[in-house]
Design brief:
Number of domains: 2
Order of helices and strands: EHEHEEEHEHEHHEHE
CATH topology of the largest domain: Rossmann fold
CATH superfamily of the largest domain: LmbE-like
Helix content: 25-40%
Radius of gyration: 20 Å
Strand order of the largest sheet: 3-2-1-6-7-9-8
Number of strands: 9
Structural class: alpha/beta
CATH class of the largest domain: Alpha Beta
Strand content: 5-15%
Length: 315
């Protein structure tokens, strides 16, 4: 299979999710001439705003964040070299559901939802919005989240459900012929972080927290609050939250050669990602495993051991 015959589709919940989790992967395959399609399920209307002069755009103030996030998404796609990016059902069909935080510090569904919140969407209706895209673009590989949405965000969970259902419906010849010719996705992958990667990230976060506590105590200032990263016991033997055993990783994409594109895309999402966000702590790091974007096999053709190409074994 030549690069020009390769077709990749990614289903993400909000603008910026694609750059933070799969930016290197998207830049790699776009640069190699593969067809890369991004489907974003909402416009991130409930997102935070980290730029002080733009805080008035928040949902609880002017509620005018959506068009700005679309502009940011467009700039990010330009940085990654991706030209085919669409919103599920069209702009504004499904709105950001927001989230609450559970006792572990992970995301969960909010009690207050917009009328068209993605979390409340009818699953079949949302899948029917994705089926024609799958049948038209005909991806061999489809990427989305796991059943927990990686960290519990309801829109991530819903994106997982919609992508999984739509892939099955798109392959069924007798289903909704009006939505296009059937197409069987060869391989479905879930975005993942390996346990080894997460342990290294947690160790770095805990050292940074200790340094901040020491600085605060020396200055007589309040000690910063802990996060689930800083509270996690690395000696417990437990698999850290938001990660999976290294053995479950089916394929890893080296993002190091595409780091400039990825960080440019992250910076494009300026209302969401602060300049001191943890992403940028690794910007000058040398090549190595921390740059890998990892994926679990969720269905379809297995990958050869040690795969470093999403399309390995599909030729």
């Amino acid at each position: 299979m030549s690069s020009v015959d390769r077709r990749l589709m990614l289903v993400h919940a909000h603008p910026d999710d694609e750059s933070s989790g799969t930016g290197g992967t998207m830049a790699k395959y776009a640069a190699e001439g593969a067809a890369v399609t991004l489907v974003t399920c909402t416009l991130g209307e409930m997102g935070q705003v980290v730029v002080p002069e733009l805080e008035h755009l928040r949902h609880d103030r002017d509620d005018a964040l959506a068009p700005v996030r679309l502009q940011e998404l467009t700039a990010a796609m330009d940085a990654l070299g991706v030209t085919d990016f669409v919103r599920l059902g069209g702009d504004g069909t499904y709105a950001d559901s927001g989230m609450a935080t559970d006792e572990r510090g992970l995301a969960t569904a909010s009690n207050e939802l917009r009328p068209n919140a993605f979390w409340s969407a009818d699953l079949l209706q949302a899948a029917n919005d994705l089926v024609p895209l799958i049948r038209d673009r005909r991806p061999q590989v489809l990427i989305t989240y796991d059943e927990f949405g990686h960290y519990g965000h309801p829109d991530h969970v819903q994106a997982h459900r919609v992508a999984t259902y739509a892939a099955a419906l798109a392959a069924t010849a007798s289903y909704r012929r009006d939505l296009g010719e059937p197409w069987q996705v060869d391989r479905v992958l879930w975005v993942a972080i390996s346990e080894g990667q997460m342990r290294e990230m947690i160790a770095g976060a805990q050292q940074e927290y200790r340094d901040r506590v020491a600085a605060a105590e020396a200055a007589g200032e309040p000690v910063p609050e802990e996060s689930f990263f800083t509270r996690f016991d690395l000696d417990s033997g437990e698999v850290p939250p938001m990660s999976c055993p290294d053995a479950d990783i089916a394929v890893q994409i080296d993002g190091y050669p595409y780091r400039k594109q990825r960080f440019a895309a992250l910076r494009a999402h300026r209302t969401q990602i602060a300049a001191d966000e943890f992403f940028f702590a690794y910007e000058d790091a040398p090549a190595g495993p921390m740059w890998n974007e990892c994926y679990r096999l969720a269905g379809g053709t297995p990958l050869p051991p040690g795969a470093t190409d999403l399309f390995a074994g599909l030729d």
